[in-house]
Every structure is written in structure tokens, then in C-alpha cells.
Design goal:
9 strands; globular; 236 residues
């Protein structure tokens, strides 16, 4: 029954004017899903079917998703010949925190954003919807790139800016607070989404990578930021 509902969601609901997005065709179709663990992953809502695992992992149709139980997490590894950077694999994990609450963690996401603009945010939007449906309350990651005043990066990543535009939030690092204090319209900002709401261009020019989280709870600031961005980009 869950598979039928998921099929209807993708093939019917996603086509409604208020819900469809650019790139949805690449997430309606099946990917190859290989569950290598003895048991299929389970959350409080029950076993996770292939449709749901594919969505959580942001795996496009025609790709391959490998699901493996490791000591600290369920690991979802995505391979695709077209939409990922050359020779790259995306890695998403279902983790459990110290309070026993499961959450989604994006370990490595390398979509080819230059060749397929907007693809990554649509993939994330559908993943966030799936994560909310299975009862998760947050998604976490370490966003890479930026000025390097907190971390050193091996290449010019832009995750520090893109994930923030998608709705990920974080308390501002002391160095960022000092920078904001010198800019009148940012002086009262205390979180990353405070900056994004006022001047996302400033963050792109002055920000840095850091640990971020997306609040999956209905009506959250994260959802508002994501939906606004999709509409601004003409993707929804």
C-alpha cells in the first residue's frame, strides 16, 4: 500500500500546478536500489520502501542506490552516470542522536550544478518532503566552502551558500558576528537565516562553511526559505 501511495504522489500529486517543479521527471522514475543489509531500514513509521529510500538519498531515475547498514548509520550511496560530478558518489546517512532520535545527514553531495542548474535544490526539496513523511524532524550537514576563516577547503565548494539558500540554518560563528556588526542592516543578525532573509549576496561574498541544519517541522523558517527560493528561481 505504501508503494502505491508513493507512486500516486509522484505520478499524480507532483503534476498539480501548485506542486510540480522543474526536474520532477528525473525523480518520478525508478533507480536501481540494492539493499545489502540483512534487514531493510526501519524508522518509527515502518520499513522504508525503495521509493522512499530513493527520495531520501536524492537519487535520480536511472541511477543506482546502495543501502548498507554500518555500525553508526544506515548509509545510502548514490551513483549516476549523468547528474553527478565525474567519478563522484553521493553519500547520505540515516543517523540516530544521543536522545535516540533519527535524523538525516548529508555526508557528501556532488551534483553537477553547472551543467544542470536547479537540479540540486529540486532533489533536496523532494528529499525533505520524504524525510518529513517518515517522521524525521531535521537534516544536518557540514556545508563546505567560503572564506575559510573556520575551516580550510580543498577546492572552491559553494555549499556554504547554496545550502543556506535552501533553508539550512546555524548560529553565526563569532567571526561572522564581528563582520555583521560592521554592516548596519546585518547588525542584529544572530543566525544564518537572519542573514539570508536580509542580504544573501553578503553571505555569498563573506560567509564560510559550517555545520547547518534544516528544520523539517511544518511551518518552520527552513521550509519558508526553501519554498521562497524555489519560486524565485522559477523552479516551482
Amino acid at each position: 500500500m505504501k508503494v502505491l501511495f508513493e507512486w500516486a504522489r509522484r505520478q499524480v500529486w507532483w503534476r498539480l500546478p501548485g506542486e510540480r517543479t522543474v526536474w520532477d521527471d528525473m525523480f518520478r522514475g525508478h533507480a536501481r536500489v540494492d539493499v545489502l543489509s540483512h534487514e531493510r531500514p526501519r524508522l518509527r513509521t515502518g520499513l522504508l520502501d525503495n521509493w522512499t529510500l530513493q527520495s531520501l538519498a536524492m537519487c535520480p531515475a536511472g541511477g543506482r542506490l546502495v543501502v548498507r547498514q554500518e555500525p553508526s548509520a544506515v548509509v545510502l550511496t548514490v551513483l549516476h552516470p549523468k547528474y553527478l560530478e565525474q567519478n563522484s558518489r553521493n553519500r547520505v546517512e540515516i543517523r540516530v542522536d544521543g536522545s535516540g532520535d533519527p535524523f538525516l545527514y548529508f555526508e557528501l553531495i556532488l551534483f553537477d550544478a553547472q551543467a544542470y542548474p536547479g537540479f540540486g535544490v529540486v532533489a533536496f526539496y523532494r528529499a525533505a518532503q520524504a524525510a518529513q513523511r517518515v517522521g524525521l524532524t531535521r537534516i544536518e550537514l557540514l556545508a563546505a566552502g567560503g572564506q575559510g576563516y573556520k575551516y580550510s577547503w580543498t577546492r572552491p565548494f559553494n555549499g556554504y551558500h547554496s545550502w543556506a539558500r535552501f533553508g539550512f540554518d546555524a548560529p553565526l560563528w563569532p567571526t561572522t558576528l564581528q563582520k555583521c556588526a560592521q554592516v548596519p542592516h546585518l547588525a542584529n543578525c544572530r543566525t544564518l537565516l537572519d542573514i539570508i532573509a536580509v542580504d544573501p549576496g553578503w553571505w555569498k561574498a563573506n560567509g564560510d562553511g559550517c555545520d547547518m541544519a534544516f528544520d523539517l517541522r511544518q511551518g518552520s523558517r527552513s521550509w519558508h526559505t526553501l519554498l521562497t527560493y524555489l519560486k524565485e528561481r522559477g523552479l516551482k
